[in-house]
Design goal:
alpha+beta, Cathepsin B, Chain A, 8 helices
């Protein structure tokens, strides 16, 4: 009799849990306007949502330095998430880092305890790449926006991520085959040097809804670009001091990182990239500052391109050690290689490898530096 009562109790708990999950899923469907094309598709996504919800709740019960939450990725498998939102970046071996003046030793004690470039009016609103692997294009325009604002002393303006996505060639297939299939910010900076980039208002972003790169609709003869640059520079790979000095005193950086486990990040200081496991550089973002959390310690402030509803207004805080801590990326062709470069393993430092590759435009202005 006692066994029967226990079984009934377990069934009741299971039913209640299942009803709660379904209720949460229906709220998710309504909030994010999900449309599923059949009852079987609905059940498939419900099952995925349930697994993600269990993972989120288990993580939050374990006392980590960062929290997870249900968001617009909750009906995607881990592989589906990675293939669209954390895919394609860069071939580091072909990019030589840093001007000589940038490699001098830096006394970190002389730098401010915190820095947030949003306070200087050079960071635009959070953007959303949508269902297009165009993170590289967003990292490009976000950093161009910042350096144009620094150069002119005016508030940052929104530049066209769609132009960069649709118009930038990627003949060596670095970080992908171009457009929604991946590329690198360095190629974006090279394109903006040659052609310039118009405003978001003039050439609005559409690939996030279509998932397609789209044809290039920019005409240099009839349209006037809002920004040009003379080129770009990269900092020395994995150099903690130079990286921090740049963020503290010069400006934001277009950077790369392993975003494989960022999907459900909500708040706190993220330390979920293990240095003992493969760090797969697969996503382009922008670092806009650093600081210290009273409970969880030092962090880098990183701006993502997954919309304002993700995490803290579109930002993630990544753990910042006091020196470069390193691991390896043994799968560079999953997002960091160019065709035929022969890379197999590369040393990457910083949480999620963010000290490995970083770049910024030079000579950013509203007037082209190219003479006719």
């Amino acid at each position: 009799m006692k066994t029967f009562v226990v079984i009934l109790g377990l069934v009741a708990v299971s039913v209640a849990t299942d009803l709660r999950t379904r209720s949460n899923f229906n709220e998710f469907v309504q909030k994010y306007n999900r449309k599923y094309d059949s009852p079987s598709h609905y059940q498939e996504r419900l099952s995925i949502f349930a697994e993600n919800l269990r993972m989120i709740e288990q993580h939050n019960s374990e006392g980590h330095s960062w929290k997870m939450a249900v968001n617009h990725f909750a009906d995607l498998t881990h592989q589906e998430f990675k293939s669209t939102y954390a895919s394609g970046l860069l071939n580091i071996a072909k990019v030589q880092g840093g001007a000589p003046s940038l490699t001098k030793k830096v006394n970190l004690k002389d730098l401010p305890a915190s820095k947030d470039w949003r306070d200087d009016g050079i960071i635009t609103e959070t953007k959303d790449q949508g269902s297009c692997g165009s993170c590289w294009a967003f990292a490009t325009v976000e950093t161009l926006e910042s350096y144009l604002a620094i150069a002119t002393g005016e508030d940052a303006i929104e530049l066209s991520a769609q132009q960069v996505t649709s118009c930038t060639p990627n003949p060596m297939h670095c970080g992908g085959t171009g457009g929604c299939s991946g590329s690198i910010p360095e190629i974006g900076f090279t394109y903006s040097h040659m052609m310039g980039v118009v405003t978001e208002e003039e050439y609005p972003y559409t690939s996030g809804h279509t998932g397609r790169t789209g044809d290039c609709n920019y005409d240099a003869e009839s349209q006037t670009a809002a920004v040009y640059n003379r080129g770009y520079e990269t900092l020395p790979h994995n150099d903690y001091e130079v990286f921090m000095n740049h963020v503290a005193t010069i400006g934001p950086l277009a950077i790369s990182g392993d975003a494989s486990r960022w999907a459900f990040y909500s708040s706190g200081v993220f330390d979920g990239c293990s240095y003992d496991k493969n760090i797969q550089i697969n996503h382009a973002i922008q670092v806009v500052g650093y600081g210290t959390d009273a409970v969880h310690g030092d962090y880098w402030l990183v701006r993502n391109s997954w919309g304002k509803s993700w995490a803290d207004g579109g930002y993630i805080k990544l753990k910042r050690e006091s020196e470069a801590v390193c691991g390896t990326d043994s799968t560079p062709m999953m997002g960091t290689g160019c065709e035929g470069d022969g890379n197999s393993v590369q040393k990457v430092c910083g949480q999620c490898g963010i000290l490995f590759d970083n770049s910024y435009p030079i000579g950013t202005d509203s007037v082209s530096g190219i003479k006719p």
